[in-house]
Each structure stands twice: as structure tokens, then as C-alpha cells.
Amino acid sequence: MSLKKLNTVLATAVVLFTLYLGLSFVLPLEPSFPGLPNWPSGDSGFPIVKSSREIAMGLAMGVLLVTGHRRPLGWVLLMVAIAPFGDMVNVLAHHGSTAAALGVHGLTAALIAITGWLILREAGATPATTPATAAQSA
């Protein structure tokens, strides 16, 4: 399998999972928030905020993937990896499960960042070799 096909499969998985996750907060498939001990509860608005964030990220990545904008997709994936990293910090800060924080959110952040890096590498623009740095070295 070529690097481009592998990257496309990985990016598609990230997009679909992000959209699924966003929809799961709008259409509660699971009544609790894994990793957080009974928080947030009641009518906090947390599910809608998380849902909106996930759906927006999924749609942005999906549009770039479908339209073939590989380099912007790589950069957006790197930026999107910050969200699950923030979720990991949030779970740890609220004394949630360390296993869930690292195993779910930390691993997700790492996989998204690796996918973004691979796509940038494929597109010829790794974070260390941007158009500005390439022009300077020429």
C-alpha cells in the first residue's frame, strides 16, 4: 500500500471517528462521560459544546480530505490533535481516570498528530520544511 493510500485511510478514520464522536454527544449513545467521575452533570451544556467542537473539526477535516487539499489537511490534523490533548489534561485535572486520560485522549492526540505529520511528509511539507524555510535554504 502506498504512503498516500495509507494516509488517506488514516485521515478518513480520523474524520469519521470525529464525526461519530460529535454525533454521539447530540444523540446520547452513552449516558456518561468516560474518564470523568460523574462530571459534568445536569443541564451543564457540556455535551452540546463538545458535540459542536467535534462536528466542526470533523467537517473541516472532511472537506479538506474530499477536495484533495493534502498539505492544509496535514496542518489541520496537527492543530486538531490539540483538542484530545486538552481533553486528556481536563480529565487529569478533574481527578478522572488516568488510564482513560492517557489511553483514550492521549493516544487519540498522538494518532491524529502522527497522521497529520505523515500527510505533510507525503505532501513534501513536513513541519521542518515549510515553503518559507525551503525558500531560505535554496
Q: Which parts are unreliable, with pLDDT below 50 for 5 consecutive residues or more?
A: none
> How many distinct folded domains?
1
Beta-strand portion reads: under 5%
Distance between the termini: 33 Å
Q: Helix and strand succession?
A: HHHHHH
How many beta-strand elements?
0
**Averaged pLDDT, please?**
84
Largest β sheet strand count, sense and barrel closure: none
- Radius of gyration over all CA atoms, rounded: 17 Å
Count of individual helical segments: 6
The geometry reads as globular
Structural description of this entry:
- With 138 residues, the protein is an all-alpha fold.
- The protein has one domain (3-137).
- The protein has 6 helices and no strands.
- The chain has helices at 3-26, 46-67, 70-80, 82-93, 98-122, 131-137.
- The longest helix is centred in the C-terminal third of the chain and has 25 residues, at 98-122.
- The two termini are 33 Å apart.
